[in-house]
Amino acid sequence: MFTPQGPTLRELAVQALSSTMRGYDLLAPKFDRTPYRTPDRVLEAVAEAVRPLGPFGRGLDVCCGTGAGVDVLRGLCRERVTGVDFSAGMLDVARGAHTGAAGGPVVDWVRADALALPFTRAFDLALSFGAFGHFLPEERPGLFGQVHGALRPGGLFVFPVGAPPAVGSRAYWSLLGFDLAMRARNALWRPPFVMYYRTFPLAGVTDDLVRTGFTVRLLPLEEFGRRPDGSPRVRLVVAARA
């Protein structure tokens, strides 16, 4: 991260002391050169798992950032693909980096809050990568309700969820430390910067989706292997609007 191409420590500090939206506006030009961008391996695995569930006409990337998920949708949808994000800076980078290919689906970029999506029954497929840590648990039902309303009947909302790290592992302590530091930052500094790694448990997420009106399936992404207990390291949540 701390390379000539990526953000400097000072830039990250300024971002962390800004609001969530302003922080991403500032980070946008260098975002794709940080570990925060969803790895291509994850994007490709999701695309391969979703493709047999189609065909799809129109797709929506919820909290699209710099547009990595839009590229996935362009390979899955025939008519139109829309990326939506609340950060003008991230959308500017996305527009410059991801233009629609000749003969492919039309690509749109929309600035909007995911908690107030300006769409009604417009899409066959919605996906999201790496954005859910920006929503507090009490906001999840509202977020899922907005996506539900944006989908046509039978439309799918898909996203990957990794298994939590083993208690006591290095990853466990790293994520716990990050979340505690962020909570302390938000208790002492305004405006808040909402980003947590441990607020999106699969069981709670599934319950919220069902209460919103989705039917939910969980597909293992076998490319990422299994844990010692045999459970998948990464699952794909496939939520269908009835």
TrEMBL record:
InterPro entries reported in the protein's UniProt record: Methyltransf_25, SAM-dependent_MTases_sf
PANTHER family registered for this protein in UniProt: METHYLTRANSFERASE (PTHR43464), UBIQUINONE BIOSYNTHESIS O-METHYLTRANSFERASE, MITOCHONDRIAL (PTHR43464:SF19)
Which Enzyme Commission number(s) are listed?
A: 2.1.1.-
**Location of the Methyltransferase domain:** 60-155
Q: Pfam families from the xrefs?
A: Methyltransf_25
Annotated GO biological process: methylation
Which enzyme class, named as a word?
transferase
Which parts of the chain are coiled coil?
A: none
Q: Which CDD domains match?
A: AdoMet_MTases
Please identify the protein, giving its name as recorded: Class I SAM-dependent methyltransferase
Gene3D superfamilies xref list = Vaccinia Virus protein VP39 (3.40.50.150)
Keywords associated with the record: Methyltransferase, S-adenosyl-L-methionine, Transferase
Q: Which GO terms describe its molecular function?
A: methyltransferase activity
